[in-house]
């Protein structure tokens, strides 16, 4: 298959195809007697896997997996994928915990319990298992807010402030995408005093994670196809 035909099949440019080859994401092309690149079913298997894995696992993981497969280190490739699957599962656990906590708040929404207790940045970091530096960064980029202690200027958080922390921490380990950027922006724009909005956002995050899980399953199918192709071609 000629470069332009393979590129057209996967809706990419020939320069992108050459770039994948240069980075080792796909095997080197065969050469015809006249020196032209020629691609085979092996390259189709690699590109199918790459295009399925990149949105589901990110380019960093996808690159590591494809390089491992080309090195015939199948087990290393599979364990790297498993690590990402575990991260997604942990994100879902956080999302479910966040939704439970927010739903529980409805029992005392109309009194001062939610906002009467203040935490320092260190206390909030420990309670929500997020580094203090991350909380400061989130505030600096406008994702969350805090109150300043009038005596020393230190950050203080009450339950209303921490609702956004509950939500945003769910996205920390997810693959960077336009969707995750949009979700973070939606969280930043929430009225932190509106509990119902926060609950709806938590439910929406769970739905997003369900979609991400299905996307990973699709990628795993293509990864299996590639591994089968590589193993059979070597036998």
From TrEMBL:
PROSITE patterns, per database record: HTH_MERR_2 (PS50937)
Keywords recorded for this protein, A-Z: DNA-binding, Repressor, Transcription, Transcription regulation
Domain of life: Bacteria
Domain HTH merR-type positions: 1-53, 118-174
Transmembrane regions: none
Gene Ontology molecular function, alphabetical: DNA binding
Classification via SMART domains: HTH_MERR
Record flagged with keyword Repressor: yes
Xref: Gene3D superfamilies: 1.10.1660.10
Classification via InterPro entries: DNA-bd_dom_put_sf, MerR-type_HTH_dom, MerR_fam
Matching PANTHER family: MERR-FAMILY TRANSCRIPTIONAL REGULATOR, REDOX-CYCLING DRUG-SENSING TRANSCRIPTIONAL ACTIVATOR SOXR
Name used for this protein in its record: MerR family DNA-binding transcriptional regulator
Organism of this sequence: Paenibacillus terreus
């Amino acid at each position: 298959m000629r470069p332009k035909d393979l590129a057209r099949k996967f809706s990419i440019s020939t320069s992108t195809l050459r770039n994948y080859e240069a980075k080792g994401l796909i095997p080197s092309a065969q050469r015809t007697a006249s020196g032209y690149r020629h691609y085979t079913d092996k390259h189709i298997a690699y590109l199918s896997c790459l295009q399925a894995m990149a949105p589901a696992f990110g380019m960093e993981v996808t690159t590591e997996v494809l390089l491992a497969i080309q090195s015939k280190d199948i087990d290393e490739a599979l364990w790297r994928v498993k690590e990402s699957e575990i991260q997604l599962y942990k994100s879902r656990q956080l999302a479910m915990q966040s939704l439970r906590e927010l739903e529980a708040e409805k029992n005392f929404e109309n009194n001062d319990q939610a906002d009467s207790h203040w935490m320092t940045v260190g206390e909030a970091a420990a309670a929500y298992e997020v580094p203090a530096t991350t909380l400061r960064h989130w505030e600096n980029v406008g994702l969350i807010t805090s109150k300043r202690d009038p005596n020393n200027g230190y950050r203080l958080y009450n339950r209303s402030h921490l609702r956004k922390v509950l939500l945003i921490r769910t996205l920390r380990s997810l693959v960077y995408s336009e969707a995750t950027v949009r979700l973070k922006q939606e969280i930043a724009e929430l009225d932190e005093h509106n509990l119902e909005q926060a609950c709806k956002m938590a439910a929406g995050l769970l739905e997003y994670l369900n979609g991400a899980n299905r996307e990973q399953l699709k990628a795993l199918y293509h990864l299996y196809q590639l591994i089968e192709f590589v193993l059979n071609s070597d036998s």
